[in-house]
Each structure stands twice: as structure tokens, then as C-alpha cells.
Design a protein that fits this description.
The structure is a homodimer.
Chain A: H1 13-25, H2 28-35, H3 39-53, E1 58-61, E2 64-67, H4 69-95, E3 100-105, H5 107-114, H6 118-125, E4 129-134, E5 148-153, E6 162-163, E7 168-172, H7 175-178, E8 192-195, H8 201-209, E9 220-222, H9 225-233, E10 238-242, H10 243-251, E11 263-264, E12 268-273, H11 275-280, H12 283-291
Helix pairs in contact in A: 1-2, 1-3, 1-4, 2-3, 5-10, 6-12
The structure holds a DNA duplex.
DNA sequence: AAATCGCCGTAGAAATTCTAAGGGTCATGC
DNA sequence: GCATGACCCTTAGAATTTCTACGGCGATTT
């Protein structure tokens, strides 16, 4: 008959959130990125939660973690609860009156596509402010405090999203280089510029065009698409261009597309909006500002 | 175009919980008690949340706080979310296999009613352990990690609860004092023993019995019912007895009920069980152990 | 066989969260 | 009218939690 602490304490809220994120994202490292902390912190949280509950939630394996049976059974409940909490937080944010819009975007999209449209966006939502966040992976819109999400990904991935590009890709290079290129096979001679996040682009393109690429050398690889694009402008090689990311450079004549053929990349530029923003009724204006003609540049 | 912190951070989870508790309980002090911290801590959390959102959630008034319009609109969403979270936590607790049962009870019930039945309860749920927590107010069963709740309160207050007493009250006193008492009116001569949490008991009884109590002197008042009961046994005065709390003393001959009449107190001993416990299928056995004959004493 | 990836463990550092104490306003009781 | 009690606020410092940093391990990849 213990009466010691006046109340039994529940589990730490943050540990719950860490578990939920890790279970949903399938890894401690991914959860850590979403929560903006180091993996060690997430690991500790989960361990603390397991100690509190007296149940193993994850099975530690060398190349990642797997949910145990108990963990798999419990996880959906937490995900649902945090979704609901996220929605409540969204309404709280909205109560302030949409004073600022948080935009999540891939680094390349933020730099190459959004940048010239930012002024238009800003004008469309004035007097609210815009904050752009470069993210590797698309955030869950109900969970995190983003209002707009701009990522290149399969259309099926986000049924609620609006496609803002056709999802085509095609080789591009500096105008000076284009003279030597008469057909797709000619790329075999060239230095191929790769983006690390889309490593299979060239292979996919080659398969679609019926061209066989030399397997040995792989050209240059960049962690940032915009870097690869700069190099392409400078004549360092030929880059696999994505419609929405290179259209400005093509329009400006900095790059050219030596071949007519465009193939589907499987990834379109998808625009997702938060519930919060949808309720505010500004989506229409924003989509207009983003998909309409660039007013600057 | 700020890109400074990789991600915009949501509001602190604990601040959300503090706001939810304060809104539901209608005060910072009550929330502080539920959360097991000082009111200052809750106050700070709420202030931090208001600063984050840029909206006033509470209106501070001299004798408490009131929700603002914005706060009132937002609060239900948070309550629902934390309810769901609480349920998920309940399932997490259950995953361990009900290794311990947390019982919440009023101090008086814990001491006078539960105490002699504890051995039976323990036997009924073996090998699980029992932990008893004395609480002033009944906890929300979905929210907090209690499995059993034993409080004296109006039956309507908890539709899901099981009444364990008739909710009758009647004066009791030491056997030696009873000789002078021939009818209800005689209590006017006596020292009345009061419990502070049920300050109107004597008035309610008097009204029901058609007796008018002297208004001036109010006898002795105790913060703990069990203390008042001890004093009554010692002959310090006459106490308003509640059926479930005095039955042991009556059976033992330590107290007697000088008048036959019993009046409804409006409060029965209500047993509430958590979802977690209900799912475990042990409720039947527990109710049996608690409402059956005491095996000890 | 070397490199890489993902997680763990620990210790110290950083940040959050809590308590304690003093002060104010309003209601209630004498 | 004045004391008393409720209730909340604020502030500073203390205690605790939480985070980072970094070396290590086991397994997969090159």
C-alpha cells in the first residue's frame, strides 16, 4: 500500500513523441532528423519509455531498428493521437491569424524554382511573412508546423497534393557543348553530372531512350542539384535536367536541351498545403501566385 | 527568406498539456495538482504557450482564470487529443501485462473502507501488485494511469461507475453518548463533528429530518474524515456518518447510530475502472473482492 | 578487407522545468 | 471596515531533464 508519491506519473511526453516518430519513420536517425535532435537523444527517449512500460518496443538490429510485436500494435494509436494533437496545434497557430507562412521545400526546389517566385508569393499573402525551410524529406503536414510543402516526388505519394510540373526530365548542357551533340547516344562521350539524391536519373533516362550508358565511369556527383546546375552552366558536363528546375536557365539561355525527347521522371513537383492554410481560404491565391507567370527575374 | 533553424519548432508538449489541464479543470491551481507540480510551473507553461502562439488563451482575473474566446475554441481539440494519447498510454501500460494496479481513492475511503478490503483485492488480482494513491478529487480515468477509482460522489457524475454503497448518512457517536439521545432533536445539545470537505452534511441531514440546527456554534471541524471518526469514537461529539465509512466501526461496536433514520447524502461510493483494466477482464473479480464480505478484520 | 551505416553507451554541457518566496486583487466572514 | 483566505503573477535560483559529442560494435556493401 504505497502512498509515497501523491500520484503515479505517466510516461514523459517527449519520449512518446520520439517513439511515435521512430515508429512512423522506421528508424531512430530519421526520427532524430524530424525532431531536430541527435539520434542519441531519440535513442535515450525510447529506452526510457521501454523502461517505463517494461516492454521492448523496438528490436535493435545492426542496420536499423524494427518494431517488436508489441511496438507494432501500439504505434498506430500514438500516431493517431499525435496527429490529432498536431491538428489542434495547427488551429492554435491559425488563431494568431496566419501572420507567417512556413514553407518546406527541397533545397534544389527552394533555390531554383521557388526563389524567383518568392516575391509573387509574398505579395499574394501580404501582410503575412514567408519563412522557407530547406528539408531533405517531405514533412508530415498534419504533424509539423508547415503551411506549404514543395517536393519532387511521385504523384501517388501525396494524393492531396497539387502537381506543379509535368515531371519530365531531359539532358541539358551549356550552349557551347550542344554543338557536338546530335542524338542521345552522344552522351556516352560526355561527362555526366549527377545529383546524389537522384542517382538513378541517368539510368532511367537511358532505359527510356534505348541508350546504353558506359557502366564504368559515372561522371561527377554533387550533393546539391543547384551545384550540379551551376557546373553544367559552366560547361563541366551534361546534366539530367528536371523541367521545373531548369526552365529558368533554359529561358535565360544559360542552358540548352540538345535533344527534343522528354521522359517521365516519375517525380513531379507536388504542392501540399496544411489544414490550417486551407481553412484560411488562401490556397487559391497562393497556387495562383506560384503557378502563374514569374513576375520577377 | 529565413533559413536559419533547419525547422520551425512546434510548441513545447508540456505547455500544451498544462494548457489542456488548466482549461479542463478551470484553474491553474487545479491543473497544478493534477500535474503534480506547483501552480507557478503551470503558469509559466501557459505563458510560454501564449507567447508562442501570439494569442491570449486565458483571461487572468483576481479569483481565478477564465478562458478567452480563442482559448475556449481551442481547448476541446487539445482535450480530445490528450484523451486519445492517454488511451494509447493505457494500452502501453497494458502491454506489460497488468503487473500493477493503481488505485485512486479519497483519503477517507482509502483509510476506512478500502483498508480492510485490501487483502481481498490483493488476492483477487495476484500476482499483480496494488498501489493506493490518496487523491482529493477523482482523476480522469482515460487521462491518468489509474486502474481503479474509489470516490464518494453523486451517481450522475460517473455514468460508467458502479455504486458500492447506498449513499446514506446518519449521525453516529460513541456508545456511552447514545444514552442521552432519544430523538434527532437532541443533537442540538451535542458537539457536532464536521468534515471540511462535506461541510453541509449536518445541514442537509437536518433539513431532511425536519430539525433546525443552532446556527451559531458549529462544533469541531476536521480536514480528515478519519480523524473526525477517531474523535467520535473517543466521545468528542457526534459525527455525521456515511454508511460505507462507518460500517466497520458500527460492527465493531466502537460507534452506534442512535437514531434509526437514514437520509440520502447524494453521494455514493462509486467505483470506476480504466479501459485498460476492463480490457484485461479482471473487473468482475475485483468487484467481487471489493463488494463481497471482508475476509480480514 | 576496408568502408559505410545505424545504433548504443557514457559523461559532461546545455536547456528546460520546477520550486520558493513575495505581492496583488477580490471575495467572504466577523 | 478590517482581517482572512483564495487564487494568481512574477522572479531568481536550483534541480532535473535533455542534448551533444564521440568512441565502439556488428553487419552490409564495395
Amino acid at each position: 500500500m504505497a502512498v509515497a508519491p501523491p500520484r503515479p506519473k505517466g510516461p514523459p511526453l517527449n519520449a512518446l513523441r520520439a517513439f511515435e516518430a521512430a515508429s512512423r519513420l522506421g528508424g531512430i536517425a530519421q526520427a532524430a532528423e524530424e525532431l531536430c535532435v541527435t539520434p542519441g537523444a531519440v535513442s535515450q527517449h525510447i529506452k526510457a519509455l521501454e523502461a517505463w512500460a517494461g516492454v521492448a518496443l523496438f528490436e535493435r538490429r545492426s542496420q536499423g531498428v524494427r518494431l517488436t510485436a508489441a511496438g507494432a500494435e501500439l504505434a498506430p494509436g500514438f500516431t493517431a493521437a499525435f496527429d490529432q494533437l498536431g491538428e489542434a496545434v495547427g488551429r492554435l497557430r491559425a488563431a494568431r491569424g496566419m501572420r507567417s507562412i512556413n514553407v518546406a521545400a527541397m533545397p534544389s526546389v527552394a533555390l531554383l524554382w521557388l526563389s524567383p517566385r518568392l516575391a509573387g508569393l509574398r505579395a499574394a499573402i501580404a501582410p503575412a511573412e514567408v519563412a522557407v525551410f530547406a528539408l531533405e524529406a517531405p514533412p508530415g503536414m498534419t504533424r509539423e508546423p508547415f503551411d506549404l510543402s514543395l517536393f519532387m516526388r511521385p504523384e501517388d505519394d501525396c494524393p492531396t497534393g497539387i502537381p506543379l510540373s509535368d515531371g519530365h526530365m531531359f539532358p541539358v548542357c551549356a550552349p557551347a557543348m550542344a554543338a557536338d551533340l546530335h542524338g542521345p547516344e552522344d552522351v556516352r562521350q560526355m561527362t555526366l553530372l549527377h545529383d546524389q539524391t537522384w542517382a538513378t536519373d541517368w539510368q532511367d533516362w537511358a532505359r527510356a531512350c534505348g541508350v546504353t550508358l558506359p557502366t564504368g565511369r559515372r561522371g561527377l556527383s554533387y550533393s546539391l542539384y543547384s551545384l550540379a546546375l551551376s557546373e553544367a552552366k559552366a560547361g563541366a558536363g551534361i546534366l539530367m535536367g528536371h523541367d521545373c528546375l531548369v526552365e529558368d536557365a533554359l529561358a535565360a539561355g544559360e542552358l540548352v536541351a540538345p535533344f527534343g525527347a522528354r521522359v517521365a521522371s516519375g517525380r513531379k513537383l507536388m504542392l501540399e498545403t496544411s489544414m490550417t492554410l486551407q481553412r484560411s481560404g488562401q490556397v487559391q491565391a497562393i497556387v495562383g501566385a506560384l503557378s502563374g507567370e514569374d513576375q520577377s527575374r
